């Protein structure tokens, strides 16, 4: 058996445009998804994540390249002959069948004996906590319940890989958070490889073992959530995952991992950490996460200390979001409110003169683009 | 009064439906009752109606006669029963053929790009711009012994050097069937299209994803989900085919008499409105019975039925 559940090798998918041209929905994508992994494809709409998923499911065939499932090349194999199942964004529950009939459908197609179908449908519905709903019609269920039926319908077939296309997209925030944890627990329970498509970065970070960040049909970075967040390899990933500040600059010196960048806006040099390969003299961008940037009231005797003025403050309870004018750039700084106090002295004021400090390991020097 | 009109919703409703209601009562319910009453009467020698209450028209329709050639007191004359069964089987065949022809077409249109769909639907309705009777006449031109089809076949046979005897196509049951299917096909295509178009593409994908081959997807998704269209189309085709007389008159000649022709003849030629009325009532009853059992089995238009 192959080490990888799903493998995309140099997959390209082109679609004709109405103007007669061509558009690359997926542009030379190579991905390896390990057995039993919770793998997410994350990106804005139109980044190629859904098309990639559909080529794995067999709804689309790659223009070029190959998809391997369990080490087997899929070629132009139709969906009904692939060992994968899909949970659709719209759930696609069959309106003319009850909940139990929906879940039984896939087993009937495998010609499973009636007794076994009954038992497995019961188990699947129990797993998604829908026991007792067997005879309901999908229209009589809430959004969350429909979601569970769609899950049960796919999982009852015991696929090698479960493909999920923004399955929580239609749910409200609270239910979505609940389902995120449930889905993750379910995946660990059944031990099936999950390939999960989402545009919600928080969802991807919460649930995934690994994430592929995509944009414009290209995979920009593949890594564990912590790698994606702490060591984004380009400006797009740093921008898309979480919040960050960008300062444009030019590389002056490189010493191992440490890179000295001249920031024209600050008329000063900043020492950061190399997050993508850069050369001396290259135009780069420095990413500063708002929660990893600090504000102090007096100039410190250390590097990476810049003077600024408080532009605006937003108190949101757990944090205070401070916006500092730093040489014409509005810099976001999240200050955790660690001490409970009503003393106005403890909080910043608009127009206050402050100093912003960044540790070199928190300033990531990135390629442009 | 004005205040009532402004505030009372059910009064507003009554006002709004009353023109149609009066129209239907005056021109449908009353004539229908009249037909029923006349069917129990008997014909006067001058062709007018002598009102009464007698079932003799119905007895005659079912072929039970008291004056028999063999001298028996009661015997069975199957002539009208034959007309009834011929009408039923023709309506049945027309409906089945129409379903078989309309289904692939409706499916094709429903799956075509949105912009093209309207063009296709438009094209289906274009023949309707021509008068019904003229369209039937056109079929006569095609099917005649000296008609277009025989002409073309004769020319082809001449090319390969065969001797060709023109086919006798007009004035046959087949000609009537072809004409009926042609006339009523759009009434099958449109409701089928409507129900096929409503089928979400993701249901097809989910079905394939769960292991159903295209054929099984058709049986388990397309067919049951399009049943409302099949039911509406069947009703729209079966009922008028049962009653028309123009198609059978022109394409079937004297050989193919349907219940519609019988009714027409009784009123216009035999001048026996009582027997014509009885035949009308029987036609309506038969149609109602068939429709009733059919819709009970397959559900009525809006319902979705599991097969």
Top keywords for this entry?
heterodimer; A: 369 residues; alpha+beta; Rossmann fold; OB fold (Dihydrolipoamide Acetyltransferase, E2P); five-stranded mixed β-barrel; B: 307 residues; mainly alpha; MetI-like fold; 2 domains; two-stranded antiparallel sheet; 3% strand; globular; disordered C terminus
Explain the overall architecture.
The complex is a heterodimer of chains A (369) and B (307). With 369 residues, chain A is of the alpha+beta class. Chain A has two domains: 4-235, P-loop containing nucleotide triphosphate hydrolases (Rossmann fold); 243-366, Nucleic acid-binding proteins (OB fold (Dihydrolipoamide Acetyltransferase, E2P)), CATH 2.40.50. In chain A, 23% of the residues lie in helices and 37% in strands. In chain A, helix 2 (99-109) packs across helix 3 (114-127) and helix 2 (99-109) runs parallel beside helix 4 (143-155). The two termini of chain A are 39 Å apart. Chain B folds into two domains: 1-39; 78-298, MetI-like fold (Orthogonal Bundle). Chain B has helices at 2-7, 9-39, 56-61, 79-111, 114-125, 132-143, 148-160, 173-197, 201-209, 214-243, 246-252, 259-268, 273-298, and strands at 42-43, 49-50, 64-65, 75-76. Chain B is globular, with a radius of gyration of 25 Å. Chain B starts with a helix and ends in a 9-residue tail after the last helix. Residues 301-307 of chain B have low confidence and may be disordered. The interface between A and B is medium-sized, with 25 and 20 residues.
User: What is the CA-CA span between the terminal residues of chain A?
Assistant: 39 Å
Structural class of chain A: alpha+beta
Strand content of chain B: under 5%
Taking all Cα atoms into account, the compactness measure Rg of chain B is 25 Å
Percentage of β-strand residues of chain A = 35-45%
The largest inter-chain interface, given as chain pair and residues per side, is: A-B, 25 and 20 residues
CATH class of the largest domain in chain A: Alpha Beta
Gross morphology of chain A is globular
Multimer state: heterodimer
User: How many domains of chain A?
Assistant: 2
Radius of gyration of chain A: 25 Å
Architecture of the largest domain in chain B in CATH?
A: Orthogonal Bundle
Profile the largest sheet of chain A: 6 strands, mixed
CATH topology of the largest domain in chain A: Rossmann fold
